[in-house]
């Protein structure tokens, strides 16, 4: 990808994502890039951020991007999350890397099954509203273990943890993760869920457009070196 192409790409992201602040805007883009299996694009964006963002913005971009990628294990799977995180961290300014926490925020001392399970149920209901119980029963009938893992491990332990990404921002990142993998039913649910959790129509449109821009660019440059 030439320098002019990279600049044009990022200008497009800024234009379509203008309703969302830059650190979260770029974190949503990173999430979509990982989902689209384009870690090289994460490297290119991070190189831009190293130069274009203030230190505070760059730190925030890194924290939001890492947390979004972690949470999206729930949607895009560990391999793409690992590759995306590697691309982000291996390109990041070294001084910012040194500022990041050295220990995990998630550990056995804070894990209480009932607390985590209830937190997952509450987010599940917040996202799906009147459809929450119906969907829960349907998935339970397919496989009880599946709804248990979704509600406790994914919604409870991952998605509802709001220390870095709040619930609204998590839903916007979820939208970014779902568009590249072409799951319209889940995308519709999370678009509605984002609105229920406080996202404006402009923010939802911006998250959608960011992911669509990433998809279009990832397809056009699939066989080109970055």
TrEMBL record:
Gene3D superfamilies tied to this protein: AhpD-like
Positions of transmembrane segments: none
Coiled coil: none
Domain of life: Eukaryota
Identification of the protein by name: Carboxymuconolactone decarboxylase-like domain-containing protein
Species name: Coemansia reversa (strain ATCC 12441 / NRRL 1564)
Lineage: Eukaryota, Fungi, Fungi incertae sedis, Zoopagomycota, Kickxellomycotina
